[in-house]
Amino acid sequence: MSVQERKQRERADRERLIVTTARELAEQQGWDAVTTRQLSERIEYSQPVLYSHFRGKREIIGAVALQGATELAAALRAATAAAHGPRARVIALARAYLDFAAHNPAVYDAIFQLDGGLAFAVEDTPEPLKDAFAALLESLEQVAGDGVHPGLFTELFWAALHGLATLTRAGRLPPQDADRRVELLVNRLAIL
Amino acid sequence: MSVQERKQRERADRERLIVTTARELAEQQGWDAVTTRQLSERIEYSQPVLYSHFRGKREIIGAVALQGATELAAALRAATAAAHGPRARVIALARAYLDFAAHNPAVYDAIFQLDGGLAFAVEDTPEPLKDAFAALLESLEQVAGDGVHPGLFTELFWAALHGLATLTRAGRLPPQDADRRVELLVNRLAIL
DNA sequence: CTCGATTGTCTAGCAGTGCTAGGATCGAAG
DNA sequence: CTTCGATCCTAGCACTGCTAGACAATCGAG
Fold first, then answer.
1. pLDDT of residue A1
2. What is the DSSP secondary-structure string of B110-174?
3. Residue of chain B nearest A158, judged by CA positions
4. pTM here?
C-alpha cells in the first residue's frame, strides 16, 4: 500500500512540476514558447509523459488558468481586506486586479484569453473561476447602487477592468495614465 | 506602359483577393483554419504567391485588421449620425461597437486580439486605427464631464466596451443581458 | 528466488504548420 | 525568332501537437 501511495504522491508532484514549469516558461518567453518539446525537456521527461497527465496542451493551459484564478481571488480579497471605507476598497480592488494582470500576463492570458478548455457562465464552471468572480462581487455589491442588480454591476465593472488590462498590455493604452483611469472608473461607476 | 499598368492592377486585385479570402475563411472557420495552404488553395495560387504580397501570415492578419478598423469607424459614425440627443448618441455608439464585434468576431480579433504586427498608441499608428479612436472620441468628448480629459474618458469607455465585447464572445458573460449592461454603462459613465 | 504480467517510460514517427530556395514557364522586348 | 527577365510552382526545411509500439523496470504469484 505504502508503495502505491508513494507513487501517487510522486505522480502528483510531477503534475505540479508540469504546471509550474509551463507557467514559468510562459511568463519568461510567452505562451508561444511553451511547446510540448520545450516543456518536456525542462521537466526532464519525454513528451508522452505530458499526455499521461493531461489530454493535451490546452488542458495544461487550463491547469495554469485555474491555479492563477485561485491566486487572483486571494489577491483581490487581500487587497480589499486591507482597505478602509467603501471607496478605498473599490480602488484597492481595481488596482489589485490590474496589478495581477500586469505582473502575471501569461497567467492572465491563460485565464481569460487563451482556450484552456474551461467552461464559463454555466453550471459546471470550475470553482476557482466562480470564486474569483465572487471576490469581485463581495466588494462591488456594496457600491452597485439602488435598484441595480449586483451581479450585472459586477459584470460591467469586471469588463471595464478586463478591457483596461488587455488594452494596456497590448500597447493600445498608454500605461502612464493607468491610475487616472482607475480613479475615473471608480468615481463614475461606483455609488458610494 | 499599358501592359505594366494592367499587371499592377492585376496584382492589386490579387492582393485584395487574398485579404478578403482570409477574412471570409476566418469568419467561417476561425483564424486557426487560415493556414497558408488553405488560403493559397482558395485563391487558386501556390503558397509562395502569398509571400510576394505580404511578409508573412501576421501581415495578412494586419491587412484584415486595417480593413476592419475602417469599417468599424464608419459603422460608429453612421450609428451616431442617426441618433438625436447626447444620450441616444452614446447608446447608439455603444450598441454599434458591440454589434460590430458580435457580427465580425474574426475581424474584431484581428484588430484587437491577434498580433497583426500593428503599432498602437505611438507615432506611426496606422491611420484607420487612429480614425476608429477618433470616431469614438467625437461622440464621447461631449459627455466626458467637466475637468475630465476627453481622451482619457474615451480610453476608459472604450476599454469597457472592449471588455464587454471580448468577455461576451468568449462565453464569460451571459449574452441576454447585453442591453442592460450597455444602459448601465452609459448611465454611469456619461455625464449628460 | 524465479518468472510472467503489469506498469511506466522512451524512441521514432505522423500529419500538419509557416516559410523559402531553386528551377520551370511564359511573355515582352530587341 | 531569340533572348532575357519577371512570375510562379514544386519540393523541401524546421517546427508544431500528438501517438503507436518497443523497451525496461517493477510487482505479485508460485
1. 47
2. HHHTS------SSTT--HHHHHHHHHHHHHHGGGS-TTS-HHHHHHHHHHHHHHHHHHHHTTSS-
3. B163
4. 0.94
